[in-house]
Amino acid sequence: MASMTRRIGALFLVVGAAGGFAAPAAAQDWRTEAVPEARIEITAPSRLERLPMRYGETGPYHRARFMSKDLQDTVRGYAWQTDVYIFPKKSADDGGIAIPKGMPPEAAKEFKAAMAQFGAKSYASFKAWLDAQKKVEIIQDGKAMRAKNGKLAYEHWVWRYENGWGPTGVCWCEAAVYDFDGQQSALVIEIPLEKADGKPKSKWKNIISKMIRSGDEYEVTEAALDTSDKRFQYADTPAKKAALEKAMANIANLDGWDLFTQPNYIVLYSWDFEKSDQANKAKKLAEFYAERLEKMRELYTTLYPLDATGTKAVWPDPATIPDLGGPITGAKANKDKPLSPEEKE
After folding, report:
1. 307: number of CA atoms within 13 Å, CB side?
2. Of 29-33, 172-176, 226-230, 270-274, highest mean pLDDT
3. What does 250-269 look like in DSSP terms, one character per residue?
4. Cα gap 52→70, rounded to integer Å
5. Phi and psi at residue 148, in whole multiples of 5°?
6. How far apart, in whole angstroms, are the C-alpha atoms of residue 174 and residue 189?
7. Buried-most residue among 55, 56, 103, 161 (CB within 10 A)?
8. Distance (Å) of CA 147 to CA 163, 214, 216, 269, 301
9. How confident is the model at residue 39 (pLDDT cuts 50, 70, 90)?
10. What is the mean pLDDT of residues 81-105?
11. How high is the pLDDT of residue 327?
12. Residue (of 42, 19, 17) closest to 32 by Cα position
C-alpha cells in the first residue's frame, strides 16, 4: 500500500491549478467513477478527489487513487484515501510471473527480466499481496459477498495497517475484491484511526459501506482520437499521437483535468472539479507557462543545436574531452632532475 502524502492545510499545487481550499465546502454528493483497466466502476463521494497517476506509471498493480480534498472531510486534518489495484493471474507462458494487462510486449519482457534478476515477488491475487504487507492486523479474511441489486459479487476484507499516517499512525482499511477472467481487481479504502485499536466513527463507516457495495462491471470501449479537435493540432506524427494517447489515458475519467498540445509539448492542467467556472482560467494559466516553455526551448536549441534525432544536443567529439584526471597544464616535469632546495621545502 502506498503511503498517504497529503495533510490538508497546505496548498497542493499543479500547473494550471487555481486557488486554495474554500470554506464552507459543498454538501457531500455522490458520483460514479470508472477505472477501465480494473474493469469496475464505483460510487464515490463528491469531496473525494481523483488524482492522476504519475505520468507513465504502469504499476505493476496500482491503477487509481482518490483522496479527500476538504478540511471538513479529514480525520483531524489527515486525508483519507481510496486506491484501485489489479492483480493479473499468472500464466505458464509468462514463466510464473504475472504480467500487468495492457503492458507492451517489450516492456513485459523487461518487466519479467527485472523480476527474475532481483528476485522480486509477483502477486497473482489480492490475498498474496496483502499477506506480503508488514504491520497488518487482519480483522476479516475475505468474506464472500453475493451479487445484489445489480452489483458485482466480491470478497470483503478488513484490516488495520500501521503505516505511520494519521493521529495514531494506524489506518482502518477495507477492500472489495472482484474476480474477473485473467485478473482480480481490488477497491481499497484507508481511513486514519483516532484510536489505534479502535474503529472509524459512524460517519466514515457509512461512507466505506456505500463505496464497498457499489462495485459494478465497466464495459471497456476503444475511443478513436478526434484529429479535428484543436487541442490536438500539434499531434501530427505517429510518435506524437502515441504520446498524446498515453497522456489522455493518464487523465481519462478524471473530473477537473484536461490537456492541449503545443509544437513541442503536451500540457496537462487541472482545476477544482467542483468549480467548473475555473476551467477557462486554469487553461489560460497553463497556456501562459507553456508559451514560455516553447520560448525557452527555442533559445536553448539555438545555443545548443540538436543532433539528427532531434531529441538531444550535439555532443562534442569524445577525443576533445579530458579524461577523469583532467587536463595537464604547464611544463612537463623531468623525473630525473633533482629537486632544488626551494622545491624540497
Report:
1. 8
2. 172-176
3. HTTT-TTEEEEE-SS-EEEE
4. 18
5. -150, 140
6. 5
7. 161
8. 32, 11, 10, 39, 60
9. very high
10. 70
11. 62
12. 42
163, three cell numbers: 503505516
Evaluate whether 126 touches 85 at the Cβ level (below 8 Å): yes
| Residue 239 cell numbers, joined | 510518435
Instruction: Estimate to the nearest angstrom the gap between the alpha carbon of 110 and the chain centroid.
Output: 20
Between CA 222 and CA 289 the distance in angstroms is: 32
Q: In degrees rounded to 5, what are phi and psi of residue 279? A: -60, -45
Gap between the Cα atoms of 223 and 252, Å rounded: 11
What is the model's pLDDT at position 4? 55
Residue 136 is inside which H or E element, if any?
strand 136-145
Q: What pLDDT does residue 294 have?
A: 93
Which pLDDT band, with edges at 50, 70 and 90, does 103 fall under? low
Could you give the CA distance from residue 191 to residue 165 in angstroms, rounded to a whole number? 9
For the record, the C-alpha cell of 65 comes out as 487513487
8 vs 76, higher pLDDT:
76
Residue 80 half-sphere exposure, CB side, CA atoms within 13 Å?
A: 27
Residue type, 144: A
